[in-house]
Amino acid sequence: MHPCSDHSGEGPSVLDLPLPGQLKQQWLELATRRQFLGRAGKALAWAGLARLMSDNTALASSGGDPGLLLPHFAPKAKRAIYLFMAGAPSQFETWDYKPELAKRFDQDLPESVRGGQVLTGMTASQSRLAIAPSVFNFQRHGAAGHWVSELFPHIAKVSDELAVLKSLHTDAINHEPAILLINSGSMIPGKASIGSWISYGLGSMNEDLPTFVVLTSKLPLQSNIQALSSRLWSSGFLSPEHSGVALRSGGDPVIHLSNPKGVSRELRRTMIDGVNDLNRQLHDRIGDPETNARIAQYEMAFRMQVSVPELTDLSGEPESIWEMYGPKAKEPGTYAYNCLMARRLAERGVRFTQIFERGWDTHGDLPNRMRILCEDIDRPTAALIADLKQRGLLDDTLVVWGGEFGRTVYSQGGLTKGNYGRDHHPRCFSMWMAGGGVKPGAVYGETDEFSYNIVKEPMHIRDLNATILHLLGVDHERLSFKFQGLDQRLTGVEPAKVVREILA
Known about the structure:
Low-confidence stretches: 1-11, 49-67
Number of helices: 12
Order of helices and strands: HHEHEEHEHHEEHHHHEHEEEEEEEEHEE
CATH architecture of the largest domain: 3-Layer(aba) Sandwich
Helix content: 25-40%
Largest sheet: 9 strands, mixed
């Protein structure tokens, strides 16, 4: 008997439906007896569970998957804002203060410290690995006493809100795999991004806006720019409704958001209703869940025609806000503008907002480049934290800042007292987190005097992602999706832990 046949004697089988031959053949190829019985068993099991859970326990809005009862526990954060510095900011000039290096200027990095690490092709041929101390001063700030670089005078004022993580490490030494790894848990393209996992697991808090929004900032520098592609905010094997929606800085914030000339909103509604009706008929025939995702996307796009213009209309922001974020905030697409947009998205219940700022690949002319980059992000980043706090949003909004890996203590290329560059370094780097259940003023991890190796409390990026999920009420080991025979997870199959030392 064929696995798709209806052997109960009641009703037609899938083969009896009036499907085109090609679609019928695809169904025969995909729907094995095991898959059919598995789906049927799950449907019966969840029907029984729904009856037992008649106390209105909420099911997550997760692409129609009733298997996700989330959050797993009471969350500290309802939403997250991820400030991603693509290109890898140097920890020496930002958060890992190493004053003793000044005594070692232009000395060779001891081989005992390097430990035979394979170097990139950009420095492997250098005759020397000369130590380059940072040219920037650091001072302690706030009650927590964080060491903060002179490059961040505004962030210094809100530094008591930060938990500084000094012992991050990763597996990749080049940008593309490293950015993929920290954003999706894998160096291989095609996996779901962190924002998509959060959308899948927790669903939406505002049906009129996407659950996951991406903002790409204008370039403060015009060289050493890392390419960004949509696979960094892709839903991968998850339903496409969980992909990040990239808002543009020019024209329509979302492509084709506005109706064409001569098409009214009423006519658009009628057209969408007609298309959705055809898609529902197709779903009734085929049962492909992607069809329902397509319907949901059409409906979201229609609602966004009203919600997005209101979101991007900043005319009602008071002068005090423009003063906080700085003059660049009035220029669409800048990092400052995007930080203000992130606050507005947080206010409106968007689960996950990710801002990308490129240009941090400082292989040469590092002091000059770092001045430009840090000036671009310092004031708006501090404003975002202060603005969230004054609105009562910081307590349940997690803010994360960082890049894909760190930088070497030795100079790439020539070295002078005032100029140097730094190569890629995956063994240790710094990030910070704030709000959303993070312990204010905390410091986690420690590196050696060269910021080359971790000597205390190592934190893999898997641990970072596990901690982010935990703060949102999600157990990283229980949030999974069956794909290619494996229970896929953001943190992968290798060990990962929640860093509880930084939890409030």
